[in-house]
Amino acid sequence: MSLPPGFRVDVLEGARIAVFSLKANRLRTVLTTLGIGIGVATLLAIVGIIQGLNTSFHRQLAGFGANTLYVSKFPWMMKGDWWVYRNRKNFTMEQVDRLRSLAPFLSAMSPYVQRVSDVAHGGEQMSTVRITGVRQEYLSIAGYEVTGGRFITDADDEVTRPVAVVGADVADALFPGISPVGRTIRIDNRSFQVVGTLSRKGKIVSESLDLVVFIPFKTFYSSFGKGRGFEIALAVEDAAQVKRAEDQLIGILRRIRSTPPDAADDFSINKPEAMAQTYEQLTGALYGVAVGVGLITLLVGGIGIMNIMLVSVRERTREIGVRRALGARKRTIVFQFLMEASSVSAVGGLLGTTVGLGTAKIVSLITPLAADVQPGTVIGGVGFAALVGLLFGIWPAARAANLDPVEALRYE
User: pTM above 0.70?
Assistant: First the structure.
């Protein structure tokens, strides 16, 4: 559907006069543009950092696997009284064996136990390394890949061999430039032979997944004592059946742990999806704050546009009277002032987008915070800025169009 010729003429004429007016008042235009630009830059910088964190978090979380579940006495995201979880019974190896026989839908299962210790080799030493006792199937559950040597085997676990598989951070720090396989490390002054190395997995939130050493499950208890409880890592054959598997596990675990029918579950089934949901709730609140700050700043910029446009109307009252006397329609005057307001806002939005994206990228380079602004956010930022100018330009445009031509010609 084509626009009426008169309408197109009004738009073109309004645009031409708007550009001429903006050029004639450069300082006013720059100051108004700056106000909108600051608002858009603030909004996009914050949103860019939050989107980068979300992308990074979900990418890291994918390393856990979409088909994995982790059974523990403690939930990953703890709510309520800590002592309720603390007083739950620890899992036993008998329960692990029964779970294996009663849950044929599991493709892999391994108990695991952790502690933080110092690890050393020669003159090099690392602190706060996560030492994890596992069985052979833990490799396929956790999603690590062996880059050298081998992983823990069932034979290692049966005879409690003092062997270890080291993560990428440990290998780089203790064995710079050489292969760790076949060499010896000390964990709390106990010697372990390195039999394998793992590929790098990165971080999840602020915790490195590569600052880890895996040893056989039974070796862990023989070396560091039997007084601590363990957890169970599980993998489901079909990722689409994780929810169904979780429901079946609840019944099986209640049965093998002899949980009374009227009692609450005395265990927690943790899954990466729950972490993602909690994280999204937290970042959702940050999004609200970011949007609030940006909207307030844009509101201030919009008010500035309206004030400047009202001043412009008063200064150009005689000009408006002359144009009306020569036959200019009201809609031509409206288009002119609306185009002035929206143009200033759009330019401010574009500049603010550039500054906001640059700020987000600089923050991601000099700090651990990631930044990743989606194309839709950029388009939305510029478009919303233009909309702000359009909305706040309505009153000045209407006031200019409704001036009485005779009175306007008399205005001094």
Answer: no
Measure the CA–CA gap between 338 and 18, rounded to whole angstroms.
9
Cβ atoms of 44 and 295 closer than 8 Å: no
**Contact status, residue 132 vs residue 215, Cβ threshold 8 Å:** yes
Could you tell me if 37 and 352 are in contact, meaning their C-beta atoms sit under 8 angstroms apart? Answer: yes
Instruction: Write the pLDDT tens digit of every residue in 23-58.
Output: 656 666 677 777 777 777 877 777 777 777 777 776
Distance CA 182, CA 175 (A): 12
Q: How buried is residue 166: exposed, middle or buried, by Cβ count under 10 Å (0-12/13-18/19+)?
A: buried
Give dist(CA 185, CA 385) in Å, integer.
60
Distance of CA 340 to the CA centre of its chain: 38
3-state secondary structure the chain: CCCCHHHHHHHHHHHHHHHHHHHHCHHHHHHHHHHHHHHHHHHHHHHHHHHHHHHHHHHHHHHHCCCEEEEECCCCCCCCCHHHHHCCCCCCHHHHHHHHHHCCCEEEEEEEEEEEEEEEECCEEEEEEEEEEECCCHHHHHCCCEEEECCCCHHHHHCCCCEEEECHHHHHHHCCCCCCCCCEEEECCEEEEEEEEECCCCEECCEECCCEEEEEHHHHHHHHCCCCCCEEEEEECCHHHHHHHHHHHHHHHHHHCCCCCCCCCCCEEECHHHHHHHHHHHHHHHHHHHHHHHHHHHHHHHHHHHHHHHHHHHHCHHHHHHHHHCCCCHHHHHHHHHHHHHHHHHHHHHHHHHHHHHHHHHHHHHCCCCCCCCHHHHHHHHHHHHHHHHHHCHHHHHHHHCCCHHHHHHCC
Provide φ and ψ at 199, rounded to 5°: -70, 160
> Over 70: is that where the pLDDT of 386 sits?
yes
pLDDT digits (tens, 9 = 90+) for 141-189: 888 899 999 999 999 999 999 999 999 999 999 999 899 999 999 998 8
Which tens digits make up the pLDDT trace of 284-330? 777 777 777 777 777 877 887 787 777 777 777 787 788 777 777 78
* Residue appearing with tokens 């546009």: 305
φ/ψ (deg, to 5) at 327:
110, 5
Calculate the dihedral angle through the C-alpha atoms of 323, 327, 331, 332, rounding to the nearest 10 degrees: -50
Quote the CA–CA distance of 165 and 148 in Å, as a whole number. 9
